[in-house]
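re: ur question from yesterday

yeah so i grabbed the chain u mentioned. its 468 aa long if i counted rite. heres the sequnce exactly as i have it in my notes:
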Amino acid sequence: MAGIGFRLQRLLKEESYSSLVKAYLYSAIISTGPMLLAIIVMAAVGYFLKFQLGREEGEYFLGFVLYVYAFSMISIGIFLYVVTRYLADLLYWNRMDAVTPTYLSVLEVTFSLQALTALLYLFPLSLDPSVKLCLFSLYLFVSGIWIAMSFLSAAKSYLWIVLAFLLGGLAAVLSIYFLGNALGFHGYLVGFTLGQGIIFFILSARIFREFGYQRSHDFGFLLYFKRHPALALTGLFYYLGIWIDKMIFWFSSSGSRIAERLSVNFDYDLPMFLSFMTIVPSMAFFLIEMETSFYRHYRAYYDDVRDRADLATLQERQEGIRRNLTEHFQKFVLFQGILSGFVILFVFQIADLFHLNPAQMGIFRIGVLGAFLLMGFLMVVTILFYFDAQREVLGLTILYCLSNGLLTFLTLTIGLPAYGFGNAAASFLSLMIGFFLLDYRVKTLPFWTFMRQPILLPKYQFESESRS
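ran it thru and got these structure tokens back, copy pasting raw so excuse formatting
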């Protein structure tokens, strides 16, 4: 995402308040994209539900949408980091003609697997065929959006990404309102699916527009599963870790089985999703400020390595990376700390706005703290990826997933006062160990650079270039 971050920074150079607001607003939409839209649309849907659908049908709709996002995110997570690494290598080799074919090939593979997954889940259900078709389409559209966003991190026009989510969100809300009024539950599903479909097709069109269409296939990314297996497992454990506490609550004794093969726990889900919204400004800060600033120092260090700079220059660059990370993590702690403090201070007003019951208010307070820690963990993981620390990141995501699952299960046995602490404690533990690994990696950067990091182009590539 650093590429888009640099383009967004041009808005900041205009030195006006409107440009500042636009830069952070665009950054927030791009960095959180599908999840932010889903939460906003669901909030609007929740408002309509009270007037157009009964409680049972409303929970039925929200439960299916929740499952679509959870299982599409976890299954696509296996591909995301591998594909992103392959895409980064394509861009480094300036093979722009391979981007669109790779996108189409990734869609072919993931859609085939996702279609099979959706059919296995939907086929045994005693639902109307039109509802099954709608859920099937929704699952594929959301999966396609996750894939498209990883490719659009290299796009030049961030406005199209923002436009896609705004148009899709608006279409979803309007369609839900009118179709829901006329068709009830079916109208809600069709309207929401229509919005996701619009987003997917606009994002896909932008990929074709940005990178052109030269050929139909490039399955080179499949070789990266063998070359970088840690990336596939990292995606799986990271996204499973995000959802595992919710799943444990769904299938616990406090969860609700609202339909066949559909259990939820809205008392836990709603406050946890609202708490996730509190870190949206920090995600924007990371994209537009921290990652781009870090990348400049990181790039300067490795440019000097390739130019065979002397030891004193390299040590100065290394110190610059350390200072940059320290300053930005301090800014994040101060910024997000103040924001989280204000959210907790006004928790009663927020509870009134979203109709939270006293139990949900308690979970929301802890969820805000957990989201704060999770954002720090996400920052550490992203920076470690720049140093190609794949094994360390895999270890961190496994730790986060397992600790979130175990501690959440423990809080369930303690009871309501402990709900939410499992997720927060897992984020804290993973963040602290992540900080230690990142600090160690920066302090020993010369060792990793000269002993482990492939700083020179591989021989086969030189030979390929010379032949061309």
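noticed a couple things. The radius of gyration is 23 Å. also The chain has a mean pLDDT of 84.
anyway ttyl
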